[in-house]
Specification:
heterodimer; A: 185 residues; mainly alpha; 9 helices; 74% helix; B: 99 residues; 4 helices; 0% strand
């Protein structure tokens, strides 16, 4: 599953829903909603990926939170593509190696919640987000995205709040262009 | 988990990843679009962090994980290595849950 799906949040959502006795179809729906954000990432990093068709098809599978964050944090375009491949391939290898270890050692470890492992994920993503925050426009986009997600958690089904956060980028861009126009006058 | 489900999930996930690349290849570049695109990753990443930390199944839930995230964030801000950030966040959360 890790080899083929390769997008952690969706894998957890699918397995979690099914093992809690949920409908397979609703598990699939939730997992796919969560996966839709990868489409947003690939939209945003398409420019830095190779133009070669085959390479692009391979690169697509590697578009995840980590690769998007790492490649976009690089100031130079050539370094961005390198960061994409290095991050993508190493996460791919370790994610799958980790899955294998987890399958074998799972019974010994017990409940991952009692180890706080669920908190390691957002903390890791926060570390990936920090380099983006030095840019004013990106900081505004991130703040708006976080705010939209908080507000929408109680109203939207699982998976949608993360997608809704993407509108933070649109609002931030709109605010930016309005300011610029005022500046010209 | 059946194989049918895993394969449909894999197909769907790959579809999203590829769709973004195909659409972006066709869109005409404009300064406004550029600004939206550059904000997308930080916005979605921030949303994901918030959801992973505060979503208690459709309700806002501020718990041990939030404290773990805060400590991890401070460590990352101070230039701590990535692994230290992860271990700190998980460790703090685990200890708080024990109490």
């Amino acid at each position: 599953m890790s080899l083929l799906v390769f997008t952690g949040a969706s894998q957890f959502a699918a397995v979690g829903t099914v093992s809690a006795g949920g409908e397979p179809l609703s598990a699939l729906g939730t997992a796919l909603l969560l996966a839709a954000r990868n489409g947003v990432y690939s939209l945003s990093i398409a420019e830095i990926l190779p133009t070669n068709r085959l390479k692009r098809l391979i690169a697509a599978q590697l578009v995840i939170d980590e690769t998007a964050a790492m490649s976009e944090a690089q100031p130079v375009p050539e370094v961005s593509q390198e960061a994409f491949w290095v991050t993508g391939l190493s996460v791919y290898i370790f994610w799958n190696a980790g899955t294998l270890v987890g399958v074998m050692a799972g019974q010994v470890v017990g409940d991952p919640l009692s180890w706080g492992l669920d908190a390691a994920f957002p903390a890791g993503f926060l570390a990936l987000l920090l380099p983006h925050l030095s840019d004013r426009k990106k900081r505004l986009a991130a703040l708006l995205g976080a705010a939209i997600a908080v507000i929408s958690i109680p109203f939207l089904p699982q998976g949608l709040p993360v997608l809704a956060a993407a509108f933070g980028a649109a609002i931030a861009a709109a605010v930016g262009s309005k300011k610029r126009r005022k500046h010209h006058k | 988990m059946s194989w049918v489900m895993i394969l449909s999930l894999a197909g769907g996930c790959y579809f999203f990843k590829l769709a973004g690349l195909v659409v972006a290849g066709k869109a005409r570049p404009s300064p406004l679009l550029d600004r939206v695109l550059s904000g997308l990753t930080p916005a979605v990443l921030a949303g994901l962090i918030v959801v992973q930390t505060f979503d208690g199944g459709g309700t806002l839930d501020v718990g041990a994980g939030a404290v773990g995230l805060l400590i991890g964030g401070v460590a990352a801000r101070r230039g701590a290595p990535f692994v230290v950030v992860l271990v700190l966040a998980a460790g703090v959360t685990a200890v708080l849950r024990l109490l």
